[in-house]
Structures are given as C-alpha cells and as structure tokens.
Design a protein that fits this description.
The complex is a heterodimer of chains A (251) and B (169).
Chain A lengths: L2 H23 L8 H29 L5 H6 L10 H4 L5 H22 L5 H29 L3 H14 L11 H8 L10 H14 L21 H10 L1 H5 L6
Chain B lengths: L4 H8 L12 H4 L2 E7 L2 E6 L8 H15 L5 E5 L12 H10 L1 E2 L14 H4 L17 E5 L7 E6 L5 E5 L3
C-alpha cells in the first residue's frame, strides 16, 4: 500500500467531517428552537474535532511538514475529497436533517468497520469517533421519524428533502483504486460492503417516518476525486478567509 | 530530585476541570499515565470528546500546576486508544457532580448505533435519571445534546428544575 493512497483515504474521511461540520455550524444561532441550536452546534463540534484527528494523521502520513490546519485552510476546492452530499446547502431544517441522517447512517457503519482497521492509528480515531457518531445517528433518526410521521407540513418537507438529497447518497458506496488499495491492505472496508448496513438502517427509519425513497440508483458523483459542485467554493471562501487574508495568523 | 509518581497524581487531583470545576482531571479519568522518561516527566492525557474545546485548557492547567510544583522538564502527550469512557469517572467525582447539580452518568446506557430499539430510547424512556436537586425519579429528557458535548438537557417533573445529565459515553 502506497502512503499516497493512505493520504487520499484520510483526506476523504477528514474532508467529509470538515465540510459537514462547517455546514452544520452555519445553523448556530439560527435553529428553529434552542435545543436544536445546541444539538447542531455540538454535532458540528464533534465533526470538527474528528477532522483534526483525520487531517492530523493525513498530514503526518504525507510527511511534508503540513499540519491539519494547513490542509483545512490552504487547499483549494480541487484538492478537497469530501462527498458531494456534505456540501449540499442547508436548505430548511428538514433538508439539513435528512442530509445528516443519510450521512450519519453511513458514517456509523464506516467507523464501526474502521475500528477493525489493520492500521492502529486509523482504528484509534474510529473508536473515538464512533461513540460520538452513535449519538448523532440516534438524534437524526429520531427527528426524521418525528417530522416525517408528523404534520402534513413537516411530512411534505421531509419527503421533498429526501427526494432531493437521495440523488447524492450513492457516492458513499462507489469504489476506486484508492478504496481497492485500502481494502487490500485491511485499512478500510470496500465502500460497497457498507451498503447493506446503511440500507437496513435507512429503510427502517424511513418506514417509521412514513417516507418513501425515490426508486432510482442514479447518483451524482465526483467529490471524492475533487470534482465538486459550485457550493464548495462558497464554503471555502468563508471558512478559509482569515488564513487567506492574513497568512500564518494564529489564535 | 524527581517527585514520585504518586505525589504527581496527588497534584493532578488538584487540577480542576475548566468547565466543571468541582471535579478534577483525575476524577474525570482523562489522565492515563504519569511517567518519568529520564529527566522528563511525561503526562499522558486522553480527550473526552474529539472536539471538546476544554482539551487545550486542560493541558495548559496541568502544565501550569506541575510547573508551579517545580517541575520544569515536562511533556504532555495525547493518547486516543482506548477511547475515554464515562465509566472512568471516579465514585467521588460522581458524587461531586451530583452535589453540583449535574446528574452523573448511568453506566452502560450509551447508544450503540442500532435503530431497532429506537422506540424505547425516545425521550430517554429506558433511562431513569434521578433529579440531582430533589432526588425525584420523575424526570424527562429535553434534549440529548446539552450545554457541553458531554451533557444532555433534562428536567425534573416534581421540582420543575431543568438540569444537566452527564451522558454515558
């Protein structure tokens, strides 16, 4: 296994948590109720914390003297490896929650598998993160059910959110040469192997939520190889502003 | 002369958690090891939650305490595995949390990511968290996410006070 493949895999993990963490943090001070504002901020905080671990290890593996902060704040969009799903706009609260739920269900399955990684550094991060993500999944699943099986208004919004974000979910299970190298080395699972677990979780929750997933296998893709939607550029413009305007500024 | 490890543990037991100052960093179970490597004291600390903003402050407080005790050559190392668990919070720490108004964690109640048991977990229906103020068992969960990553928001249906629950992790 080449170190370059491991670096690629680690940036995929870290960029997912970084971009989703940033997106979720945009809700801070704007959520519909105080408790949800706090829950969203705590979720974002967990994801940013996990980013420090993934990108910290990525920087160490790369061995070029870069840090997690350098990777987060000084790469351009084409170097980011996150799923398109996590850069989708927040939309209304329902869209944010549906995106979170579909991601959490995958994230928990992925981290559970990574706890068995042949690389002890990867396993250690996964064991840490999976405990936090279990709480994320519990919350997003509960809220998808409450709102899906709620009022006519909330049901309609959740179904619309599902119809929209569903077309971005399939990218989580696509594999390329990097994934094959990771699977071969026992570092990470074949992404396709996570699909049955994800489908079981999602199927059960959507059924309880009285929501229907679109009947299509189509998926937008490209984020994992650096081909992004226009939304990522706007995220980076805000997230990276300070380091771009004042290079090397420290807290 | 190098102070003995048990002396250093006693000093660390006086370093309060920056968010919850009634318990110490050793009560929390986040100091994993204290070891002299030659003339350097190495203190190994594990984070509670990956993104907990108190982590940096905790490391600084530990360093400040040990420097004040005359240890100039020291290093703080982070250890991730095994991951921190609320099971590691000391018995005395749990009592001090309760006296401070924070319900201590109930071991073995962390979510495991399975959604099958969802119905019983909704609103924390499978959990009885006694009110830290009046002791009533008639309490309910408001939100699984509270004022810090490690806490959930609950309320007592008898004395009507809201309270923090140090959630199981």
């Amino acid at each position: 296994m080449a170190e370059a493949d491991l670096f690629e895999f680690l940036t995929r993990m870290g960029d997912n948590t970084l971009i989703l963490g940033h997106r979720v943090s945009e809700w801070c001070g704007h959520a519909p109720v105080l408790e949800e504002d706090i829950a969203l901020a705590n979720t974002a905080l967990d994801l940013i914390g996990q980013t420090q671990l993934w990108l910290g290890l990525a920087a160490e593996v790369e061995g070029k003297g870069r840090t997690a902060d350098d990777l987060a704040f000084l790469r351009d969009a084409g170097a980011f490896r996150n799923l398109l799903l996590v850069e989708r706009p927040n939309g209304d609260f329902g869209q944010t929650l549906m995106r979170q739920f579909l991601f959490d269900a995958w994230h928990h399955a992925m981290l559970s598998a990574l706890c068995q990684s042949a690389d002890p550094r990867v396993a250690a991060i996964a064991e840490k993160a999976v405990k936090e993500v279990a709480y994320h999944l519990e919350r997003s699943a509960d809220l998808v059910i409450r709102l899906g099986d709620g009022t006519e208004e909330s049901h309609g919004r959740m179904q619309a959110a599902l119809d929209d974000i569903w077309l971005y979910a399939g990218e989580m299970f696509l594999a390329d040469a990097t994934d094959a190298a990771m699977a071969e080395a026992g570092v990470a699972p074949d992404p396709a192997a996570l699909k049955p677990v994800w489908q079981a979780t999602v199927g059960e929750v959507l059924s309880d939520a009285t929501l229907t997933a679109p009947d299509t296998d189509f998926s937008h893709k490209g984020g994992r190889i650096g081909i992004h939607t226009e939304h990522l550029g706007y995220i980076l413009a805000e997230m990276q502003f300070l380091q771009r305007a004042y290079p090397g500024a420290v807290w | 002369m190098r102070p003995a490890s048990d002396q250093i543990w006693r000093w660390l037991a006086e370093v309060p958690d920056p968010e919850i100052p009634v318990i110490s960093v050793t009560d929390l179970g986040i100091v994993r090891d204290v070891e002299w490597q030659g003339e350097t004291l190495v203190v190994t600390v594990t984070p509670t939650y990956s993104g907990c903003p108190a982590t940096t402050a905790i490391n600084l407080d530990i360093e400040a305490m040990l420097r004040a005790k005359g240890i100039a050559d020291l290093r703080i190392e982070r250890r991730l595995a095994p991951p921190w668990s609320t099971d590691w919070i000391s018995t005395e720490g749990r009592e001090r949390l309760r006296a401070y108004g924070i319900a201590p964690p109930i071991d073995g109640t962390a979510p495991d990511g399975r959604t099958i048991a969802r119905a019983t977990r909704l609103s924390g229906a499978n959990l009885t968290v006694p009110c830290p103020r009046c002791g009533s068992a008639s309490t309910e969960r408001i939100s699984q996410f509270g004022s810090t990553p490690c806490k959930a928001a609950w309320r007592c249906k008898d004395c009507l006070e809201p309270f923090d629950y140090f959630k199981c992790h």
